[in-house]
Structures are given as structure tokens and as C-alpha cells.
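Table S2 (continued). Query chain:
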Amino acid sequence: MYNRRKFIKISAAGASLAALSPNVFASGSTKADPPARFPIVISTWDFGIAANKEAWKTLAKGGRALDAVEAGVKIPEADLKNHSVGKAGYPDRDGHVTLDACIMDEFGNCGAVAAMEYIAHPISVARAVMEKTPHVMLAGEGATQFAVEHGFKKEKLLTPESEKAWKEWLKTAKYAPVINFENTQGMEPGGANNHDTIGMLAIDAKGNISGACTTSGMAWKLHGRVGDSPIIGAGLYVDNEVGGATSTGVGEEVIRNVGSFLVVELMRQGYTPENACKEAVNRIIKKKPETAKGIQVGFLAINKKGEYGAYAIQKGFSFAVCNKDKQDQLIKGNSFY
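Corresponding output:
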């Protein structure tokens, strides 16, 4: 027969067990959650491989995810063969190379620059905005002024190769975006490169998440145009309790759907990373089905466990993954079409 003292002891023991093992009794299972899959870094497109390797140098040493993503995306920003990110980016229709970037850490801090000229590493300026100002975003001349005041080198960004392509485009001045640049035989004078952004997400050894996104935007755009890449919640969003997401492609449609924030919120509701990306893509298609047939938008996401996934409107979207087992993995994302 139970007495009051024995009942209290049993109840206390049960409470202690539940506190130590909150997942033991979930869904009738006696198995704990699988071990976390981090450190890990993922990023958009094939140029993400080199970017990931640079980010991994920080992660492998136990460094912070924020430092890793900044270092990682600076690789394509400095690549003179990359005409959609950083210094060698194709200009707008007036011949100006304008750069966009944003960064977000595990505490929800974020910084961004938009339509900034003359500074080769917008991601580092975005971080400086985050850490040294009360603001989230600086744009245009103000962003350049801030960068110079904080020691960034001012330089001409329009490279001879990019200038040549721009002058060739001026012969027709036809703006006709292509779906995936890597699926074409070359950059046509009238085409605009949608292979336009590197978005990177990393989880460090402590399980903290950060993200970065940087681009020169769409070639031959209207001067002053800003896409989704520097906009927190559109081109990038991180919630350290849930996961992170980033996007690539036609930024206008991502902005209209607050895409990366949507993906993270769907993961909060229990969606897998790929299914969350898929739902975000489906919403774009549902709102503008005819427009969606001729454009590319892709989302890439990672959750708190280190599970990742992607989904795009069109075939051809790829993303790179780097962890302790694989340093140069490139995965083809699934797509609606």
C-alpha cells in the first residue's frame, strides 16, 4: 500500500527523469533525438564550393558561424571571373556596379548595404553596419561614405571584361533575363544572369546559426534597383531556435513573399527544410503562375539539427555542402518545373 511519503518520492523521481529527458516520452518513443549534424556550412550554386571551404577554416577550429559566413562569401566577392557577385559584377544599364549584401547572427542582430558602389566587399560593410551603428541598412552614397570612414578601400569596380559586356549590351539594350546562366552556352548581350547571388548558412560547433547573402544584382538593371539579397526576411533570415534560410533568383518575387522569413516560419511549424522551401516556391507560383514560368527563384534552408534542403521554380539550381565528412559536395536542388 502506498503512503504519502512514498508517493512524493516516486513523483519527484518521475519529474526529474522528465526534466533530464524531455524527448523520451514524445510520441510514445523511447529514442532520443539523433546527434546534431554540425559544424556545417551550406551555400547556393557551384561557386559555393570554394566559399564553403573558406568558411570551413573557421568552423573547423571551433570558430563562430558569423565569422565563417563572412569569410566564406568574400571568396566569390573577390573572384574576377564571377560576374554576379562582388567586384567583377555586371553593371546596371547606366554602367554602375552596385552591390547588395546582408548578414545575420545567432542573436538576431543584422546589417545590410544596398546599391553601394566602389567597395569590393559589401558583406564586411554590412557586418560593420550591424556592429557599429544602430541601423540595419545603409544604401547608396551613404553606404559608401560609411565604408570609407571605417577604413574600407574605395576602388573602381567596373572591370574591363564587365565593361566590354555592358557596351555590347548597349547595342540592343534589351533586358531579357535567362532562367539559369549555367544552362546557357554563354552570356548573350541581351541576357541577364539570374545565377546572381551567394547565400550562405552555417552552424558552428556550439550549435549557433548565422547567415550571409551578397550579390551585384541582375545585370543591366535600372540604376538604383535593389533585389532581395540585402533585405532581412527576403534574401536571408536566421532564427537560432529554428534555423536559417536564404534565396537566389529574381529578387522581386522573393521580396513580395518575404521568402526566407516564410521558410524559417514553416520550419518552426514542423516542415522539413526542403518542404519549407517547396511551400515558399509554391506560393510564388500560385500568386503569379505566368510570371513564374519564365523566371528562377530558389530557396536553401537548414534547421537547428543541421538538416538542410532546397527547392526552386526551375531545374538547374544547385547548392554546396561542407562538413567534416565532405568538403566539396554539390547537390542538385529539386524544382517545380
